[in-house]
Structures are given as structure tokens and as C-alpha cells.
Amino acid sequence: xxxxxxxxxxxxVLEYLFCPRFIYFMHCLDIPQHEExxxxxxxxxxxxxxxxxxxxxxxxxxxGVVKKEMNVFVASKQHHIxxxxxxxxxxxxxxxxxxxxxxxxFKDTIFQTYKYQLVLHAIMIRENYNLDVNRxxxxxxxxxxxxxxxxxxxxxxxxxVEIVNEILEIIDKGFYPTKSKYKSKCIDCCYxxxxx
Length: 196
Hints:
There is one protein chain. By secondary structure, the protein is of the alpha/beta class. The chain has helices spanning 10-18, 21-28, 39-54, 60-63, 112-129, 154-173; strands spanning 8-9, 65-76, 81-91, 96-102, 135-140, 146-151. It has one domain: Alpha-Beta Complex (Lambda Exonuclease, Chain A), CATH 3.90.320. Helix content is 38%, strand content 22%. Strands 1, 2, 3, 4, 5 and 6 form a 6-stranded mixed sheet that branches. The longest helix has 20 residues, at 154-173. The two termini are 28 Å apart.
């Protein structure tokens, strides 16, 4: 949606991936979700704040890091998105990579929300740093700071842009999307009483 003047955040993308109707309720109807009541959200923020203060250099040399910037605000005017990357890594092969901390355990799978957060960070880093970005890293703080590498493909970038365009369509056109196909997400949803 090149003609859109709307700018969305990485948080919007995560909400959309959880359930597209979150975007409609938050942006079209202006109904907040009161996420401050959710323990994991608060704990995750706390972990991010601590990591940005202490931020040990564990395992960075293994990743081939020659430089890093912490808590970096990035935006893409072309793709209508902005956000803060925990770390932007400059690697010894001349490429860059986003690095994110998650207050979570690693259970042999990378959730779609994690992946596309990193994909969109990669798009913005590529645009702002004028460097290739072909991988990303997640640190799972509840699994002894286990780090997972994610290789990023052209299709990942295309899908990331598609997701952003779908969100812009909801906001700009007031489009009422279908709800998540996973009914378990509806059980304690903050919009459960108004979502039909």
C-alpha cells in the first residue's frame, strides 16, 4: 500500500499475527487491550531493560560480530513500519543482523511472531544501514540464554511486506478481518466480549 500515510509498529505486527482482529479493535475502534496486566508482557519488558543495561558479550565472537548497536530505533518510510531492535549486529562478512531477546524457553521451534518480527527488523536494517541482512538471532533468556540463528530468504522478506500491507488495509480501509483460526487464542482474549 504505497499510497498509505499510516506507519505501524512491530508491536502491531505481533498483535496481527496473534489475531488480525486485534488491529481492527485497537486502530479502527480505538479500544486498548490493557496489556500491562499480562505477566509475560511485563516480564519480557523487564528482561529487555536489564539486558540493555548489563548486556554481556557472551557468544558474540562465535557469531562473528565486529560491531553492535543496542536499543536501535529503525523505520522504513517505504514499507510504513517502525520499531526498536534490541541489537543491530555488524558481522565479519560485511552483513548485518537483528538480535532479539525473548523472555521464553526454546522448545525446538521458532514461532511465526518471532520470525516476522526479525524479518521486519531485517528489512528496516537493510534500508537504514545499506547492508545485506540474510540472518537473524534470538536469545531465549529462560533457556540459559540459548541463541538461535534464523536464515532469512527472499520469500521471508516478501511475506513480511505482505503482512504489513494486510495491516495497513485494515487500518486505512476499516476492513474487519477474520479472527485467528486457532480457537485456543480466544479463550482469555481481552476482546472476547465484543468479537463476533
